[in-house]
């Protein structure tokens, strides 16, 4: 007989109030970033917008870095939600179209939330360093997992290990080996190199558009992006070998037997020509 597991206690009133206050602070900080950009983030201004003192805000976030970490982690989660939602909307489509849906979901979120995207990928905030293996790292990995899954869906570890890439140095190969999970194993270094290259290509195009560097393309930016992503994925998949087909086993009765060749119209023409040349 197994002991009953204790029921999970509901959050206390104090815990619920604290969680609600933290949400309000984060939302107020996001609003300030949307209005003035991430570099204008001010704890004093956030507190003032909520009718709090800075000292009161410190009860929830001990310093600016703690608030920035919460903002970055939430931005990554919101971006990952947008990408995941785009993939789920294309759930019945082939993997290639799901990857394109993920890429377009990434682009749409970036160009819609430029200031928050800048918080993630713009010029680093002075004197801020994200905590190692903290919430920002975990949120970023969640986003990367979506693209990895859709890019290499259906490929085995052996196929990914045989991907056609430029020669990797031993040092780079050793660094890439444990970097990404692939099922119960780790992703082979050649596939990891392809993934990182693809990420840089996709992200670079989005950054150029979100930060206004490709405005000369005008309303055609989405079409250019889709075309580039299709070409990118096709190139990656061309580099991955197909599954080896099973070798047909010849029976003893087939050994030494030469199959009969079907006579074609070209054969008939050649025979007629030879007959006409005879004296």
TL;DR?
The chain has helices at 13-36, 43-49, 54-57, 64-89, 95-112, 114-121, 135-151, 157-161, 170-176, 189-210, 221-239, 265-277, and strands at 181-182, 185-186.
Q: Kindly name the structural category.
A: mainly alpha
Poorly predicted runs are 1-5, 247-279
Mean pLDDT: 85
Percent range of helical residues: 55-70%
The main sheet comes to: 2 strands, antiparallel
> Which outline best applies?
globular
Structure report:
The protein is an all-alpha fold and about 280 residues long. The protein is about 60% helix and about 0% strand. The chain has helices at about 15-35, 45-50, 55, 65-90, 95-110, 115-120, 135-150, 155-160, 170-175, 190-210, 220-240, 265-275; strands spanning about 180, 185. Strands 1-2 form a two-stranded antiparallel ribbon. α9 crosses α10 (about 190-210) and α10 (about 190-210) runs antiparallel to α11 (about 220-240). It is globular and about 65 Å long. Residues about 1-5 and about 245-279 have low confidence and may be disordered.
Features of the shown structure:
disordered C terminus; 2 strands; mainly alpha; globular; 12 helices; disordered N terminus; two-stranded antiparallel ribbon
SSE blueprint and pairings:
Layout (H helix, E strand, L loop, with lengths): L12 H24 L6 H7 L4 H4 L6 H26 L5 H18 L1 H8 L13 H17 L5 H5 L8 H7 L4 E2 L2 E2 L2 H22 L10 H19 L25 H13 L2
Helix pairs in contact: 1-2, 1-6, 4-5, 4-6, 4-7, 5-7, 5-10, 5-11, 9-10, 10-11
